[in-house]
């Protein structure tokens, strides 16, 4: 098993956002979190990444207690996250945006990671010298997925990867996800 969540609760102020969430993601599987807006899909992903603090429950990744791990330690375990709003740095080039998480990890194999992203998402190489703000929303989604791949060597989490994307790019994103599954990567994605 790769990711195991048991009885996870998250509260913002006095409002319970997640109550008793249980979820398992097995190695090499694709698991979808489906629900309406406000159902807690993004909060679940953010809790796994350590961006929000659970009030109860357990989170474990290959036996590592994520409740005790800082966000950067979770990334170092091989977890990558592409948020719904992409969070690209607009004035940086696409290649710089791809490299940011690996730079933060002080990874020794940045070029190899980048080449892997280019192998999976060849469009990212073409976008490389362009500033992120020059890309369409769908192209930015591909870049955000590539950035998550820079650290998501074992588990890739994609928040609403098809939201607001043209049909042709949605098909391309689905192809990339299928290719990653075939490579044995675990994928957790959310959608409405």
Automatic annotation (TrEMBL):
<keyword id="KW-1003">Cell membrane</keyword>
<keyword id="KW-0547">Nucleotide-binding</keyword>
<dbReference type="Pfam" id="PF00005">
    <property type="entry name" value="ABC_tran"/>
</dbReference>
<dbReference type="InterPro" id="IPR027417">
    <property type="entry name" value="P-loop_NTPase"/>
</dbReference>
<keyword id="KW-0472">Membrane</keyword>
<keyword id="KW-0029">Amino-acid transport</keyword>
<keyword id="KW-0813">Transport</keyword>
<dbReference type="InterPro" id="IPR017871">
    <property type="entry name" value="ABC_transporter-like_CS"/>
</dbReference>
<dbReference type="InterPro" id="IPR052156">
    <property type="entry name" value="BCAA_Transport_ATP-bd_LivF"/>
</dbReference>
<dbReference type="GO" id="GO:0005524">
    <property type="term" value="F:ATP binding"/>
</dbReference>
<dbReference type="InterPro" id="IPR003439">
    <property type="entry name" value="ABC_transporter-like_ATP-bd"/>
</dbReference>
<feature type="domain" description="ABC transporter">
    <location>
        <begin position="3"/>
        <end position="192"/>
    </location>
</feature>
<keyword id="KW-0067">ATP-binding</keyword>
<protein>
    <submittedName>
        <fullName>ATP-binding cassette domain-containing protein</fullName>
    </submittedName>
</protein>
<comment type="similarity">
    <text>Belongs to the ABC transporter superfamily.</text>
</comment>
<keyword id="KW-0997">Cell inner membrane</keyword>
<dbReference type="InterPro" id="IPR003593">
    <property type="entry name" value="AAA+_ATPase"/>
</dbReference>
